[in-house]
Design a protein that fits this description.
By secondary structure, the chain is an all-alpha fold. It has one domain. Helix 2 packs parallel to helix 9, helix 4 crosses helix 5 and helix 5 packs antiparallel against helix 8. The longest helix has 31 residues. The relative contact order is 0.09. Protoporphyrin IX containing FE (HEM) binds next to helix 2, helix 3, helix 5 and helix 8.
Length: 207
């Protein structure tokens, strides 16, 4: 039987989760600043920020199935923070690309987007994350209304598909890692499709 956590416990847990989600960025920053990176630091910053952006995106998408499968409705209270962390790492990833990879060379960046399909897919994912990050507040939920807000936030599925595609298209040899992310995303999307169909069927039966 599910016992809801007290508001105080949720608040504490949120602090712990907030700090835990920041650790990859802090570790990366520390390793770069102390020169404790093997290989090119810009490559390391790109890869670590990109991987964590994708991981937080999939963790955010896993909240709904997990809360049902584990009977933990309180998990939903962490979804906004995890979604914003996906945006934080994706935005940092973009900044590494603009500042350290392309040195603010806007012509080269635009050419990159037009010529390299993996960059286009990455950019698409990030641009679509912006309205979701902006409208993640309670104020925007009220302003848009629950139905329109939920409709807008369904973009997360397209964002996740674009981000995984970005990873698949950038890989030259070993597809193991992007394949794992693609598999996890497929499971999460299929779970939703089945849940959606079940809901529809129940509605038809009740009608
Ligand atoms: C704003 C647009 C983006 C640009 C310009 C961009 C650019 C890049 C570049 C240059 C790489 C390294 C490619 C290489 O190793 O040859 C990369 C890797 C990656 N990016 Fe992006 N990216 C963008 C958006 C995103 C987003 C939104 C996500 C996830 C939500 C993401 C996830 C990844 C991942 C997972 C990798 C591979 C990391 C690895 O190899 O370990 N990227 N990206």
């Amino acid at each position: 039987m599910f016992l809801p956590l007290s508001a105080a416990k949720i608040r504490w847990l949120k602090v712990v989760v907030f700090i835990a989600c920041l650790i990859p960025a802090l570790l990366l920053g520390y390793n770069v600043l102390t020169n404790n990176i093997s290989g090119d630091p810009v490559e390391a910053m790109t890869h670590v920020s990109g991987e964590w952006a994708l991981r937080f995106l999939l963790i955010t998408l896993a909240i709904t199935p997990l809360r049902r499968l584990l009977n933990l409705p309180d998990l939903i209270k962490f979804r906004r923070m995890l979604g914003l962390y996906a945006f934080f790492y994706a935005f940092s990833h973009l900044m590494v690309y603009i500042v350290f990879d392309q040195f603010f060379d806007w012509t080269a960046i635009i050419n990159d987007i037009l010529e390299r399909k993996y960059i286009f897919a990455g950019m698409l994912a990030l641009v679509l994350m912006i309205p979701l990050a902006i409208t993640s507040t309670n104020g925007w939920v009220k302003r848009l209304g629950g139905k329109r807000w939920q409709k807008l936030h369904k973009l997360v599925y397209l964002i996740a598909i674009a981000a995984v595609t970005h990873f698949i298209w950038l890989v030259k040899a070993d597809f193991t890692e992007p394949a794992i992310y693609a598999f996890i995303l497929t499971v999460l999307l299929v779970y939703r499709l089945i849940a959606h169909r079940k809901k529809k069927l129940t509605q038809i039966k009740l009608a």
